[in-house]
Amino acid sequence: xxxxxxxxxxxxxxxxxxxxxxxxxxxxxxxxxxxxxxxxxxxxxxxxxxxxxxxxxxxxxxxxxxxxxxxxxxxxxxxxxxxxxxxxxxxxxxxxxxxxxxxxxxxxxxxxxxxxxxxxxxxxxxxxxxxxxxxxxxxxxxxxxxxxxxxxxxx
Length: 155
Description:
This protein is mainly alpha-helical and 155 residues long. The chain contains six helices and two strands. The protein has a two-stranded antiparallel sheet with strand order 1-2. Helix 1 packs antiparallel against helix 5 and helix 3 runs parallel beside helix 5. It starts with a helix and ends with a helix.
């Protein structure tokens, strides 16, 4: 499990760098052939982890439920995020992997509600959710790289 936590931290650092290095006006552009923007993808992977790990384990997520609802699966960007949302997401990116590692080591993930992802993978434990989360992070990273190329080409 330790390696999975390390990989998650590295991916979160990449997402944080994208968030902090991208001009704010580009964070909210929805490129042609996409239905969301860079910021939505970053916030989405963050809140999805909270649902996969905490909510499916019948625990209270460590991020605000309003943020989780706004960026969960099935949502779409609603204009420009507030400065508070941007700050919250930026601050949470390096923290959430540490929280999950600590909570896992404390043994708080005692129960888990099986969940079938949109890719057809059924998750039966928090360990499977932590593993699958790396796939989810990778999928959205690929989407974001595509968006970055489109934004650069149109600049």
